[in-house]
Amino acid sequence: MKETQENISLAIATVVLGIVVGFSSLILSAILDLTEHYFLNFNETNKIPVNINIFPIHRFVSVLIGGIIATIIWYFLQRHYHPVSIKNALNGKEMPLRKTFIHVVTQIFFVGTGNSIGRELAPREAGAAIAQKWSRVLDSYRWLHINDEDKRLLIAAAAGAGFAGVYIAPITGTVFCLEILYRRINTRSVSVSLIMSVIATMIGSILKGFEPYYIVGSRDFSLLSVPLAIVLGLILGVTGTWFKQGVKAASSKRATGKNIFWQLPLLSFSAGAIAAFYPQIMGNGRGLAQLAMNTTTVNSQVLGALLFGLVAKVVVTLFTIKCGGYGGTLTPSIAAGAVIGVFLGIPYMHFFPIVTLTQCAVIGASLFLAASQQAPLMALFMLFEVCHLNFTAFLPLGIGVAISIGISKWMQEAKARTK
Asked: For the domain 225-418, what is the CATH superfamily, name and number?
């Protein structure tokens, strides 16, 4: 009887949270669109990921003003509150709903004005906070009571659903829950996370539709891309791990208190100055990743632009975190990996022209993401969903991701042994 009651409570919570989190993601997407519309005068699509048509000074001012406004909000918000991570919420720490939503909306606004950080952390934190609040409210009703383990599952699933509702990627949202947050795979966890992510995706698609997030042209991957994936796995496993370590170091030294008042505006000033003449650095890295995936010809100008974009995106993103900004690192990882994939794919393509530079970028993005997030399955399925790849990509991406995460784990274990 008790088991039946718990199953019913969990089923109701799964559906309700799927709907609520789905609308939360939809609202955050709308806020992003409105911010980009009013600050940068454009509507972001996969064909126009950044606005290259406005005056350079316009981009500079947008990034700078966005940084100053976010600085003020984060300063006053954190005087009596420190943002609670999803992993801490899973361990029982409370995510105050009102303050968390102010924090989440500020992240979206910050990215929407063109500052360099990922936007995917915000919907995940919103989903987790909503699920935690729902679980605690239900404690007042005995017939809807949820046990502690199911509460953890709901928080993790809601975080994944938040991601799914923004990027229209239900499998990625599910795997994010299972592989990174909940870390237990059974019938119960798979069912809850998948159902919640699918519902959130359906609601998020009301605004976003089902278009691919990145345009990749031909989706047919040749078997000749497998040797390239092996080589890329060895290299991107290393670079992705370095980026992960950089994010960790920046997060540990993140500016707080009065320091944020000069560090974050200065960072936004610098990011705006770069964005004035190189707009692809703006936002979550979608513009840079798409630039890499659009590469069809190789010359010094193209290579110079991609190299500059790679260095600038990584450095500015890390300093954004260090200087007090908040946001995700998934999409910046995709951007960095895509550019590295193009560079390493150029000599390979001369011998095997059937492998395109776009495919090199996609493989690189997935492999870098796997190492930087320590989530091979999420990295694999995310590129499938956001690029709408077909089954031919499974072999090169699967092999490459396995090698990348293997190299990353080996590096981390070797570093731990030397301490």
From this structure: Clc chloride channel (1.10.3080.10)
Which sign does the torsion angle of CA 160, 164, 167, 172 carry?
A: positive
CA 187 to chain centre: 26
Residue 43 CA to residue 168 CA, distance in Å, equals: 18
Mean pLDDT of 386-392: 94
Nearest CA among 382, 401, 280 for reference residue 336: 280
CB within 8 Å of 76: residues ≥ 6 apart? none
Model-level pTM?
A: 0.95
CATH code 1.10.3080.10 region(s) in the chain:
2-208, 225-418
Q: What tens digit of pLDDT does each residue of 19-71 get?
A: 999 999 999 999 999 999 999 999 999 999 999 999 999 999 999 999 999 99
Contacts of 120 (CB under 8 A, 6+ apart): 163, 166, 167, 284, 328, 330, 331
Half-sphere CA count of 254, side-chain side, radius 13 A: 19
The confidence score (pLDDT) of residue 323 equals 97
d(CA 101, CA 99): 5
* Three-state secondary structure call for residue 118: strand
Looking at the structure, give the CATH architecture of the domain made up of residues 2-208.
Orthogonal Bundle (1.10)
CA 75/CA 352 separation, integer angstroms: 53
Cβ distance 178 to 184 under 8 Å?
yes
